[in-house]
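R.M. (postdoc): so does anyone remember the format we settled on? I'll just put the structure tokens first.
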């Protein structure tokens, strides 16, 4: 039965509302799963990390890390576990990282076994003019193969000059 209410909203049969609602729900679930999916190759973990960073939504990091991952955001800190890592990234994006844009370059993958690899890449921040600010940070990721893709088991973000050894 089609008609109009006094608020001028069309009355739609319940079946149509349920079908439209189910379609929208399936689309939202699909989009959420894609955003949080683990990359299919070690090489793609660098871009997946950058994409998660640039989304400024900490939930997009969840699919990138193993449950028991380690993360070293600065030399004097080590985070343990996906929940702690994602919470730290959420806080960073609420304070300073939410105003940044990251770009990767010089991605190097070193296979360690059939199910593990080291991924090293420059993770530079872009200025307002879209050009990379120099020097870039470097990210080192230890990634492992899981049934649904490659996930970060451990990672460290180095700041330019932060760990340079003094010259002898």
């Amino acid at each position: 039965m089609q008609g109009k209410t006094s608020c001028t909203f069309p009355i739609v049969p319940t079946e149509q509302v349920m079908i439209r609602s189910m379609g929208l729900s399936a689309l939202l679930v699909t989009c959420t799963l894609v955003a949080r999916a683990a990359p299919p190759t070690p090489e793609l973990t660098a871009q997946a990390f950058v994409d998660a960073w640039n989304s400024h939504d900490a939930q997009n990091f969840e699919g990138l890390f193993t449950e028991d991952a380690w993360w070293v955001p600065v030399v004097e800190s080590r985070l343990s576990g996906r929940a702690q890592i994602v919470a730290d990234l959420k806080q960073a994006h609420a304070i300073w990282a939410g105003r940044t844009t990251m770009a990767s370059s010089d991605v190097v993958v070193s296979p360690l076994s059939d199910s593990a690899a080291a991924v090293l890449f420059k993770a530079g921040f872009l200025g307002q003019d879209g050009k990379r600010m120099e020097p870039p940070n470097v990210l080192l990721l230890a990634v492992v193969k899981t049934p649904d893709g490659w996930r970060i088991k451990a990672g460290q973000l180095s700041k330019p000059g932060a760990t340079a050894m003094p010259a002898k």
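R.M.: ...and that's the designed sequence above, right after the tokens. Also worth knowing: Confidence is low (pLDDT under 50) at residues 1-35. The first helix runs from residue 14 to 36.
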